[in-house]
Amino acid sequence: MNALDNQNFTTTLLVDQTPREVFNAVNNVRGWWSEEIEGSTDKLNDEFIYQVKDIHYCQIKLIEVIPDKKVIWLVTYNYFNFVKDKSEWTGTKVHFEISKRGNKTQLLFTHEGLVPAFECYGVCSTAWTHYVQDSLLSLITMGKGHPNQYNDPIDLAREN
């Protein structure tokens, strides 16, 4: 691990559910990130699109899927309308690493490449914290997440 690795955005969950339950929840992207995801989100080489109006659009490919242990997404294309470098996430990877910790299951979330030098880091890290620590945690532990909450920093312009 080099010194830059620890600058990637990370957050961790520790839950009573099994690694299988955590893995299934991670892959239910519509259940915790956005109900409007287009495409498949649970098998190797699946590709999907996340979009919030004209604010954020990204295309993601699942490049590693190890049942009950790991899922890695590659952001193949990204567009933000609120930063100078509209493609900041392009080429970054989102890791979901699942492991046993005693009688609990740990989920380590890392957005590899989302670093403090990115203009979107503040907004994006706050949004990921909500999606993982609130929505995904709720999906894992209660069976229902909170995708696309209206008060998310990235979703302020969302209207329904």
Instruction: Provide the structure class.
Output: alpha+beta
Question: Measured on Cα atoms, how large is the radius of gyration?
Answer: 15 Å
Large-scale geometry: globular
The fraction of residues in strands falls at 25-35%
* Domain tally: 1
Say how many strands there are. Answer: 7
CATH fold-level label: Alpha-D-Glucose-1,6-Bisphosphate, Chain A, domain 4
Strand order in the sheet with the most strands: 1-7-6-5-4-3-2
CATH-derived architecture? 2-Layer Sandwich
- Helix count from the secondary structure assignment: 3
Account of the 3D structure:
With 160 residues, the protein is an alpha+beta fold. The protein has one domain (10-155): START domain (Alpha-D-Glucose-1,6-Bisphosphate, Chain A, domain 4), CATH 3.30.530. The chain is built from 3 helices and 7 strands. Strand 2 and strand 3 (47-52) form a beta hairpin. Mean pLDDT is 90; it is low at 1-5 and 149-160.
Task: Looking at this protein, list some descriptive labels.
160 residues; alpha+beta; Alpha-D-Glucose-1,6-Bisphosphate, Chain A, domain 4; 7-stranded antiparallel sheet; 7 strands; globular; disordered C terminus
Secondary-structure map:
Blueprint: E1 9-15, H1 19-27, H2 29-32, E2 38-39, E3 47-52, E4 56-66, E5 70-80, E6 93-101, E7 104-112, H3 121-142
Antiparallel strand pairs: 1-7, 2-3, 3-4, 4-5, 5-6, 6-7
Q: What's a concise summary of this model?
A:
The chain is α+β, with helices and mostly antiparallel strands and 160 residues long.
